[in-house]
Design brief:
single chain, alpha+beta, FAD/NAD(P)-binding domain, Flavocytochrome C3, Chain A, domain 1, 3 domains, five-stranded mixed sheet, five-stranded parallel sheet, 16 helices, 36% helix, globular, cell membrane, membrane, flavin adenine dinucleotide binding, electron transfer activity
Length: 673
Amino acid sequence: MAATDPSHTTPLNSAPTQISDDARGYYTPGEPLVDPVAPTGPIGQRWTQRKFDNRLVNPANRRKLDVIIVGTGLAGGAAAATMGEAGYNVKSFCYQDSPRRAHSIAAQGGINAAKNYKEDGDSTFRLFYDTVKGGDYRSRESNVYRLAEVSADIIDQCVAQGVPFAREYGGLLDNRSFGGVQVSRTFYARGQTGQQLLIGAYQAMERQVAAGTVTEYTRHEMLEVIVVDGKARGIIARDLVTGEIETHLADVVVLATGGYGNVFFLSTNAMGSNVTAAWRAHRKGAYMANPCYTQIHPTCIPVSGDHQSKLTLMSESLRNDGRIWVPKNKEDCDKDPRDIPEEDRDYYLERIYPSFGNLVPRDIASRQAKNVCDEGRGVGPMVGDFRRGVYLDFTDAIARLGEDGIREKYDNLFDMYARITGENPYETPMRIYPAVHYVMGGLWVDYHLQSSIPGLFVTGEANFSDHGANRLGASALMQGLADGYFVLPNTIRDYLADGPFEKITEDHPAVVEARTQVEERVTKFLSINGTRSADSFHKELGHIMWEYCGMERSEDGLRKAIDMIRELKAAFWSDLKVLGTADSLNQSLEKAGRVADFIELGELMCIDALNRRESCGGHFRAESQTEDGEALRHDEEFAYVAAWEWGGEGGDPVLHKEDLIYTAIEMKQRSYK
């Protein structure tokens, strides 16, 4: 597990040299990329030393500094609360009608922390190791260790805020296991963990609103970042109620805008989740890192037809007590599962991965579910030409714990399933199937969470930094709160220590240019006057992405997808129909802007996937697998972060590579058997 060098300073792998180049002709090679503030020294001391080395901002100067934070989920809400408490002037933006409607509220299963309350062998280093391994060795070592180190503080912070974590009989906080680990380190509040944590962050932020350090702007969507003399100095936002285009200036901008899973149209994300803020920043110079790394969650309610606009997640925590299976024989797939005898059931995860069983990581559980359904052993109604579903069965758990015991742990999840499907999961096994959930890719940031645009910081799911090619369950909430409460406040101050900065006015040429770009874009959407809605283009894009850049990718499929997306983009800009006007509430206009950005992102995702001729985590290339169908990495070629620079309108993206060098963990092919 650990390196032989106890100081963790000796490299354990060499820098990669890419030989294959499937994406030749689709991109331009760029200069190598190095994190300019990457820490050195023993890994266990790097974050502590960096917090000391970073410069301070005295309280009097903090009152003179303005901070814009876009997004009010766990990362954004926690950052606004912490920065406001420190005395900075914070402007907080969200497109929802309340910060409490941020998508973090939908997280169900729990939050990881290396507390070792179960005395089962957990530690900071084991959480670090599990996270790097779970991400298939495609994350930054220093960032992940910092995350593991900070995790324990998050729990203390949230308990102090009153978050109602589940407790054992003696009053101690309870834990459960999640996929990819063999210890219990996930703290939870039944199936409502995200909601309870968000309420904690929201209350902390509202305290600062009352204190006057935080100003909220709800129903505002960021449509452009303002870059002055190479530095981020504000945003252009649209008031979604009045339609007014507004200019907001600051000394620094923080994006905490979540992930881009809705590029697939059908996903577990909230309907409004989008990539626009991050993509606008990308077009202004912020690198987009590892965009092909998307996570397919294995535990979702299956697609039921072509009428759906989103999918529903069933918490991964259910895999603690539920057993996943399909019939051994195709002839049994249309039977009532209760009528299929035990000897005719294939508990395939337990069979293939005896050490981890139903607790294998999400990418592996998802691919195996796809495999058994592709074999014709899926269950549930026919959707298209095959059945998309496997059973998640609680019969054994109910016999062991009683129905009341299961209800105490999972009642709201079981109730939600029953309301959506009309089936009682206490009596009949649930049906689940993989769906797009989280994205590990995002804007590139350095160790301080600063993007390639100085003064633009990125937190939570909007950045790429902590999860590599696959996120372990219950680590999203951990990263969001770590970034917001503990990491960003300690790194952004090193940048703000150079302030107070020269004030920028709204008539500055760069500000006027950014505002004009937004206004012209809005006018363009309204003037095309074609025949198709933005939703129709989004749905078509989602189909392309799922078929060719979903659970399995291939060279031929990705090339086809790129051609199809380029044709779709041309059709979008010539045949889009946006109803209504710009000076009012106009959801048709909102969707048009988001879909335009999704189309450009989708093309880059396919180019990134085409370039990476290896399988790792959530990125599975058909050309790169072991004899038994497992993901096959090629560290000697691809142990790097792919950071893509905007190539200009009509130009090819530019690829910058940041080598991944490990000093504390030896890179190995993952095995959960």
